[in-house]
Amino acid sequence: MPDYPTSFDKDALLKCARGELFGPGNAQLPEPPMLMMDRITDISADGGEHGKGHVVAEFDIHPDLWFFSCHFPGNPIMPGCLGLDGLWQLTGFNLGWRGWQGRGYALGVGEVKLTGMVRPDRKMLRYYVDFTKAVQTRRLTMGVADGRVEADGEVIYQVKDMKVALSES
């Protein structure tokens, strides 16, 4: 495994978005405004509840974030799909962090529970990704993980069996 750090600031995440962190043709994060985190505070290939890897990241909430003005006018709420996308982004980032090659893409998710909302008065989201499987073979590179999103310490999203793969094509 390459010798990458176990935490990343916003500048490093933007470097990843430009394809400069893991190299051309490999895992990338989206650029803002679709980048759904401001920093990764911890990442591993052998930590987490199942010992298969984990990621913890944070996203600062500001009332002027792009989605609040359009979802919904007069009733601003962060779309739940953006929280799910943040979890997928982090799952793919972990695969690239491991040194595995290919471009990332989401394959699906087994179960999603949304039990709270992100309104403009929230301060911070914290993402937790816990791998249940990380596979790299000659034909397949894939991570399977459970995740949750907390808003100011309150669990608001939970997912089971997220799948992200890396492909060299």
Automatic annotation (TrEMBL):
Chief place of localization: cytoplasm
Subcellular location: Cytoplasm
Pathways per UniProt: Lipid metabolism; fatty acid biosynthesis
UniProt cross-references to SUPFAM superfamilies, sorted A to Z: Thioesterase/thiol ester dehydrase-isomerase
EC number per UniProt: 4.2.1.59
Gene3D superfamilies found in the cross-reference section: Hotdog Thioesterase
Record's keyword terms, sorted: Cytoplasm, Fatty acid biosynthesis, Fatty acid metabolism, Isomerase, Lipid biosynthesis, Lipid metabolism, Lyase
Tree of life domain: Bacteria
One MF term in the entry's GO annotations: (3R)-hydroxyacyl-[acyl-carrier-protein] dehydratase activity
Reaction(s) catalysed (UniProt annotation): a (3R)-hydroxyacyl-[ACP] = a (2E)-enoyl-[ACP] + H2O
A Pfam family reported for this protein in Swiss-Prot or TrEMBL: FabA
Self-association state and partner proteins as the record states: Homodimer.
NCBIfam families referenced in this protein's UniProt entry, alphabetically: fabA, PRK05174.1
Protein family according to the UniProt entry: Belongs to the thioester dehydratase family. FabA subfamily.
Name of the protein: 3-hydroxyacyl-[acyl-carrier-protein] dehydratase FabA
Gene from which this protein is expressed: fabA
